[in-house]
Every structure is written in C-alpha cells, then in structure tokens.
Amino acid sequence: MTTRVAAPLDVAPPGEERHRTLWHDAARRFMRNRLAVVGLAIVVLFLFLAVFADLVAPFPYDKVYFDRVLRFPFELPGHPLGTDEVGRDYLSRLIYGARTSMTVGISVQLVALLIGVPLGSLAGYAGGRTDFVISRFIDTMTAFPGLMFSILIISVWGGGLAKVIFALSITSWIGIARLTRGQILSLREKEYVEAARCTGVNQNRIILRHLLPNALTPILVSISFGIPAAIFGEAGLSFLGIGINDPLPSWGKMVGVSNAYVRVYWHLALFPTIAVALAMLGFSFVGDGLRDALDPKMIE
Amino acid sequence: MASRHRITNSGNAMARYILGRIFSLILVLFVVSVVTFFLMHQVPGGPFDETKAPLPPAAKENILRKYGLDKPIHIQYLNYMKNVILHFDFGIPYQQPTTTVTALIAKSWKVTVQVGVMTVLLAFGAGITLGIYAAYNQNSWIDNVTTFIAMLGITVPSFVVAMWLILFFAVRLKWLPMGGWNASGSCLLGSAFMCTDWIMPVIAYAIGPLAIIARYTRSSVVDVMRQDFARTARAKGLDTRAIMLRHILRNALIPMVTALGVIIPNLLTGSIFIEAVFRINGLGKFFVTSIFNRDYPMIMALFLLIAFLWSLTYLFTDILYTWIDPRVRLGAEGGA
Asked: Which site among A76, A119, B226, B264 is 20 to 30 Å from B298 CA-CA?
C-alpha cells in the first residue's frame, strides 16, 4: 500500500507542463475532428451574432413598419428575409433571437454548474448522511419530468427571459450534480488524494486542487450538451407561447407564431427552424468532439 | 441455466427491490403533488373573479365554505388528494364548470394514446430495422443514412421536424393535410384503417425515439456480433438469418429496454408539441390551453397524471430490465 502511494505522489502540484500537454492534445484531437470543427464554427458564429447583434442587425428587433407587414424575402430591398406578421425585419429578429438563445443556454448551464458541482462534490466527498440526503433529493428530482416542471412553473409565475432561465435552471443542475458526485466518489479513493490527505492538505484544498480538476472533463462535456438542451427548452416553451414575451425575439416563438401563417408565408417558418436546428447541431457536434477529444481512452 | 438458478435464489431480493422502488415512487408522487398543489395556490387570484362583480362578504364566505376553500391549505391538500385517490375526482375545471376534470380528460386521452402507440410502433419497427441494417453493412450508404437520421433525430426538436414536413409535404407538394387527426376526408376506408393526417404527426413524433433506437440497436448488434458465441454460430455453419434472429438479436435487444425507459416518458411530454403543431385535440393541446386559461385544477390533474405515468414507466422498465437480463444486479444484495 505505502509503496503504491509513493510512486505517483508528486504528480499534481508542478502540473503546469502536464496540464498544458493535456489540453494541447485535446485541442489537437478536437481540431482533427471535422464535424467538431464545423460545430465550433456554427457556435462561434451564433455567439458572435448574439454579442454583436446591435451592430450586425440592419433593424432594431422591435421596430414595426405598418406598411411592410408579411413581406416575402427579397420582396423589399433592405429586408432580405422578409418581414413578420406585424412588419418587423425578419433577419434582424433572427439575429437577436441568437442572443436570446445563447443567453438562456449559457445562463442555465451556469446555474447548473454553480448548484450542481458544489452539491455533487459535497455528496461525493462527505458521504454518509449528507450523501444520503442529497442523493435522495437528486433521485426525486430525476423523477420529475424536467420540461413539464418548467411548464408548470411558468404557468404559475408567467413567462419572460428571467423566468424562463429560472424555470429551466430548476431541473438543469441534477445531471451535473449526479455526475460530479460519481466522479468525486471514485476519485477520492485514488492514491494521490490519499497521499495529499496524508501530507496534511486540508479538505477544501483537496477538493479544489485535486478532485475537481480531475473531474473537470466529464463536467465540461456535460455542459456542452446542456447548453443545447437549454436552448431546446427555451425554444420549446416559447414555441408553445409561454416562454419569451414580445417584443423580445425567440426562435421558438417565431416558429410557433409562423404555424398560423405557414400555408402562404413559408419564410416565417423556414428561417427560425433552420436557426434552431443549426444551433442544436452545432452545440452537439462540439459536445461530441469535446467528449472524444477529452476521453482518456482515445489517447494512444 | 446457471443464471436461472440464481434468479430463484434471489427472488427475495427481487421482491425487496420492487417494494423499495414502489415506495420511492409513492414518495416521488407525494412530493410532486405537494409541490404542484402549493405552487397552484401560490398564484394570486382565485377561481372566483371579483373584478367585474364583487361578491357580498356573506355570499363569498358561503362559496368558499362550499368548495372547502376556507380551510387551511394543508387540509385543502388532504381533501384534494382524498378525492383524487378514492374517487379519481380532480375537481372542476375553470374553463368548463359544468363538467369535471376527469370527464374532460376522458374525452381527449384516446387521441393522444393513438398518436403515441403509432409513434412507438414506427419508432421501434423502423429504428430496429435501420439499426440492424446499419450494423450489418457498416460504412455503407445505408449506414451513413442511418447515422445522419440518428443525428438529426436526436438533436433537432420534434416541432422543427414537424414544421419542415409541413412546409414540404403540405405547403409545397400539397400531398398531405396540414394538420388534424381523423379528419373526415383524410381517411381511406374509414378512420379505423388509414388516414393521411396521421402520417406527418407520427413521423415527426417518432423521429427522435427512432434515432435513439437505431443508434442503440446498431451499437449493440455490432457489440454482440463480435462475441464468441456469434462467431461459434457462424463457424458451425448456421445461415446469417438464423444467427441474426436466434443469437444476435436476442442479446442485442436487451439494451432496448433501457431505450424504452428513456423514450416512453419523453413521449408523454413530447405529445404537447406535436399536438400544438398539427392542431390535434388530445391531452397535450388541452394542457396548453389550460395553461393559457390558467385553469389550475386541469393543469394540476394533467401534471399529476403525467408524473404518475412517468414514474410508472421508469419502475416498469427497471423491473423488466432485471427480469430480462439476469446479469443485472439488484443493488448490493441481488447478485450474490
């Protein structure tokens, strides 16, 4: 036992160089994955649109032109994707829609991270009664149909950006908490952790410096899949008409509204559905790429 | 044979496992019902709109007493649950006070079940077939097509696929009706046989589960194909079909139960979107209109119903899983 502990003892602290090579390798593997690169390009594009919507979009998202209602793409100069049912520029609304989607996707995962990781670490590290209580809580929450719960909350407290983020966050942290707990549970028995404990490193430092960095990759992958899930949730709620409120644009809401006009005004349905699909595919490709790139089993 | 022996040995463990799961199911339902009940009562405003016609205090008191609304909230909860459990009585919907929630649900569940059953059949039929073909012809065009469909089906939301189908087959080609269910004029040989308005909802609804099933089937068939017993079967000269049916599929389909556990609960909520896109008057559509009308008894009943079915399918698939595959250990004590 003691001899086995001794061997890998000094791996963690000087990790500077090892760290760089791990991420360097992962980045190289990621960039060799064609789908992942395509996904990354899509994600970067949408993030760019989200951040610089004010500069990129030709019109404000809520500017109404009563004389230009329901125009087809290219029917009027200056409205390449046409206008919507109240005369707003459709391209601009799509671009601002990216902002809504990205905001929801990232905020929800941020909340998931901030709740899930501490709770999961606590359960995994403390064990015993703490673990029992947290795990039962996680189990119970898993038994809730996630999207239904969001719908329920919104039906009581109403829609809007902040409330959508809140409603989606309530169930979003469960997966990460479960994952973190499992990771910590298996990592805390590792020799290097035992070694750190033997040399008198305190608990917080063990968790922060030794456990979490090693649990980071699966958490990262989980987040990269969580973002499209949150985008899907927002689009779904808004599609049903209970998510983002007017005049703020949301792709899901645009699809939902377009349903009544689709027989003639096909462009109202086509462009936002493509935007949703692209965003979902982009993030999923990135998630797949990250998982493959960070999976130690792939290292040869 | 050895595995069967073990099952009888651990029959006690099985019973204990199932009892434990049922207990946790009851706990979950209790939590769900408490949370929804208190959420519903947290809403400002009540069932009696007083903005247009203010009630005299005595009349209001009478009404509140009649519906039990003068009692403390935990008593109200207990009364509600007593009615639900003993009489399957979920109260009176605000949108149609002349009928009961139960009657409204009874009127619309059939359509939803019909859509769901057809979806499950299509998803499993096509998904397993595609998965097997893809596994047998790895890296062929059919494998690539399957991978593509799987990717699309897993990532793209059903209502997006639905809109695309509508745009192409209903708006562009005008082959299929835009929506509806069992609408007269869309059915060949009566509504029992085949209606054209079934096609798009079922495809849009099924593509997600179909994708998951195809992916599961492909990887598990590929896995089993590499096992020793499959090679032995081939070596002793069995033809491909027999190997496939008798040896590979039997083992490859075990993980399908897990897929079932993922898919069925999601179908319950997915129906909301499909019914909204295609204007199908099922439970899902009802749920959405109830939210718009702030019809809390209705929302609560539907939510409880879905939570119940959701937990039940989880329980069912877990039990099925341990029963089909004796290798699965039941907690700590089962495998010994």
From this structure: B264
| A152 Cβ under 8 Å from any chain B Cβ | yes
The secondary structure of residue A199, as a DSSP letter, is T
Nearest CB to B299 within list A155, A255, A266: A155
The Cβ of residue A33 has, within 10 Å, a number of other Cβ atoms equal to 18
Mutate to test the interface with A, among B144, B158, B160 (most CBs of A within 10 A): B160
Q: Which residues of B touch A276 (CB under 8 A)?
A: 156-157, 160
Both tokens assigned to B186 = 């869309």
By the 8 A CB rule, do A225 and A285 touch? Answer: no
Contact B243, B231 (CB under 8 A): no
pLDDT tens digits, residue range A5-27? 444 444 445 444 455 567 788 88
Q: Which residues, including other chains, have CB under 8 Å from residue A209's CB and lie 6 or more apart?
A: A12, A201
Mutate to test the interface with A, among B42, B155, B167 (most CBs of A within 10 A): B155
B6, with CB counted inside 10 A (0-12, 13-18, 19+), is middle
User: From CA A98, how far away is CA A104, in angstroms rounded?
Assistant: 10
What the block records as the tokens of A189 is 């028995």
- Residues 187-246 on A with a CB inside 8 Å of B are 228, 232, 235-236, 239-242
Cα B276 from chain centroid? 16
Could you give the percent of chain B with pLDDT greater than 70?
86
Domains of chain A and CATH, by start: 39-66+85-298 (1.10.3720.10)
Average pLDDT, chain B: 78
The SS3 assignment for A81 reads: coil
Which secondary-structure segment (H or E) carries B194?
A: strand B194-195
Peptide bond into A60 cis (omega under 30): no
Q: Kind and range of the H or E element at B187?
A: strand B187-188
Structure tokens that stand for A20 in this block: 């760089």
- Using a CB–CB cutoff of 8 Å, tell me whether A76 touches chain B: no
pTM of the model: 0.82
Flag whether residue A279 sits within 8 Å of chain B, measured between CB atoms.
no
What pLDDT does A297 receive? Answer: 57
- Distances A215 to A79, A210, B106 between C-alpha atoms, Å: 48, 9, 49
Residue A93 in tokens? 């609304």
Distance from CA of B262 to the nearest CA of A (A): 11
Structure tokens at B12: 């006690």
Chain segment A185-208, per-residue pLDDT in tens = 888 888 888 888 888 888 888 888
CB B120 within 8 A of CB B264: yes
Query: Which 3 state secondary structure label does DSSP give A22?
Result: helix
To the nearest 10°, report the CA torsion of A227, A231, A233, A238.
160
Q: In chain A, which residues have their Cβ closer than 8 Å to the Cβ of B306? A: 145, 148
| Residue A160 zone, left/alpha/beta (φ > 0; ψ -120 to 50; rest) | left
Smallest CA–CA distance, residue A247 to chain B, in Å, is 19
Which residue from A153, A236, A259 is facing B157, i.e. has the nearest CB? A236
| CA distance, residue B239 to nearest chain A CA (Å) | 36
- Asked if residues B279 and B285 have their Cβ atoms less than 8 Å apart, the reply is yes
In chain A, the largest separation of any two C-alpha atoms, in whole Å, equals: 82
